[in-house]
Amino acid sequence: MKIFIFFLSFLALACGVCRASSCELSKSSFSHTYSFENGKVLNYEKPRFWKDLARGPKDWSDFMKDSFTRENAPWLAGIAGSTLLLIKYDREIYEETRRFGKRMNISTEDKTKTFIKLNGVSLFRGPTDLGSAMYFLGDGWISIGLFGSFKLYGLAKDDWRASSTANQLMEGLLVTGFTTQILKWSTGRQMPKTSSGDSTGRWHPFATDYLSKRRWYDAFPSGHLATGMMCVTVLTENYPEKKYIKPVGYSLLALLSFQMVNNGVHWVSDYPLGLAVGYGIGKSVASRHVVEKGEKEARSVSFYPYLAGDTAGGALVYRF
């Protein structure tokens, strides 16, 4: 029953986001075009799930190239600077967060429970209390739930924007997971709950036993936060007229951020890079599927020949 309610809530959310808005929609057999009051135009080709998913490697490559351009140098410096500054205060922030959590009666342990199991393998773990619900906000199942909801709505209503958004969410989930796992293995930082003394987590780059002892090495950066930010960014890019997506999405990410420190899974310094990865991948994935045509055509004078019955001539056209 809880699983049914879980997916039903996502379907209701998708319907609310996809429902008619202030933009103007024009359809053809090749594309669906959305025009907005500010001049922005989003154009969607017919979505094809496997074709879109196959673009993952190219989108990952674009994300990497865009991340290290000269224009993004200030952002890279900001990410590095904020991470180093937060590392200095990680232990203090961690201990104070847990004290606040106890005062608010928010569990400091992960109390997610297995609801679906196959041959002894857990397929779906869901929350059982407030703390685990906050932690679950960054779980991959959130992306899967959003994917299924937007895909069902898109197919039922022949809404190419909703269906394309669904494909982007699934592709983004795979690309984000791949990226964060590489970074986690490369840095090998301990979680707070597995660290000892006053340390802020030892670093074990490229640990050979990473897969068998992940909790010892996979704190940096936060994959949950990267996944959550990717979802918010994809939704924002595809539904710019829905102004509530950002405040609601960022508020949920704030709750997730608090709980991941509270339950000892992450240090707060794991967050700047996680947020940046999620945002960058979300932008990259969305840009592959959305064509912006909001710029006005420049003024010009053009000459066109024409034929009308037995008459031939020319036409002078002035664009303004």
Would you summarize the structure shown here?
This protein has 11 helices and 8 strands. By secondary structure, it is of the alpha+beta class. The N and C termini lie far apart (about 60 Å).
Could you name the key traits of this structure?
55% helix; disordered N terminus; globular; 11 helices; 320 residues; disordered C terminus; alpha+beta
Q: What is the approximate shape?
A: globular
Give, in spatial order, the strands making up the sheet with the most strands. 1-2-3-6
Order of helices and strands: HEEEHHHEEHHHHHHHEEE
Give the count of structural domains: 1
Mean pLDDT: 83
- Strand elements, count: 8
Low-confidence residue ranges: 1-7, 294-310, 314-320
Q: Please summarize the sheet with the most strands.
A: 4 strands, antiparallel
**SS summary, helix count:** 11
Helix content: 40-55%
Our measurement of the CA-to-CA distance between the termini, rounded to an integer number of angstroms, reads 60 Å
Class from helix and strand fractions: alpha+beta
The fraction of residues in strands falls at 5-15%
Radius of gyration: 24 Å
Characterization of the model:
The protein has 320 residues and is of the alpha+beta class. It has one domain. The protein contains eleven helices and eight strands. The strands form three sheets. The protein has a four-stranded antiparallel sheet. Strands 4-5 form a two-stranded antiparallel ribbon. A two-stranded antiparallel ribbon has the order 7-8. The radius of gyration is 24 Å and the shape is globular.
